[in-house]
Amino acid sequence: MRLFILILTAACILLCLAIPGFAGDEVGESQALPEVSAILEGMEKRYESGTVCSRFAQQSLLAGMGMADEASGNVCFQYPGRMHWHYTEPYEQFVISDGTSIWVYQPAEGQVLTGRVDEILSAGEGASFFTDIKVLSKAFEISHATGRRAQIWRDQGLLGLLLVPKKPRSEFAMLYLAIDQESFSIRESVSINDAGDIARIQFFDEEILPGKSRGEEAFTFKPPDGTEVIQIEKELGQ
Predict the structure, then answer these.
(1) C or N: which end of the chain has fewer Cβ atoms within 10 Å?
(2) What are the sequence ranges of the domains in the chain?
(3) What is the pLDDT of residues 45-64, one digit of tens each?
(4) The whole model's pTM is what?
(5) Which superfamily does 2-19+31-235 belong to?
(6) What average pLDDT does range 123-137 have in this prediction?
């Protein structure tokens, strides 16, 4: 079920075109870095301060199948639990959640997949942590990222974190986050599973809309007349 959501990005997200340097090479020189707890506190304040919207670009690689894919669009997050992904490339698709339910709508197919968030996404999957940063410290062991990619991020003014699930699960082995050291916005997210599949999402032109200026209607979905509604749990034999 979770792989289904991941690929669809009804998981909203993740898998990358060979990103070098995440494992292996240590950073050459030590640098003074903020405590992980301070970074998480800054992220919490950032993502709970209003409705956070940005453009995104997603790259994914299914290692075992030799398949790569790219997608892009716009996204908004609202604490607690709400997200609205609008994919515009390579085809239009919406992934919407009100924190309880999730909808994956493909207009060209005249079809929407829906189910309960807690039955579909484990902590951190589908970039769900954007809607509640507190879930990170509850579900993951968190440390500063090392390696060439971490050094590249630091040179760009970004802080790299490595997150490993406290309860091991093959479909979600680790998560990397690149965080702006001034605003504490997440600029890049990279997830890797045990099969070596990688998903990468970059975020651009972020803005914070005051309070809940994007109303409830932005984070709920009413299927247009004639749309086929499919329960995700049922579709996947749950």
Answers:
(1) C
(2) 2-19+31-235
(3) 999 888 999 999 999 988 77
(4) 0.82
(5) Lipoprotein localisation LolA/LolB/LppX (2.50.20.10)
(6) 75
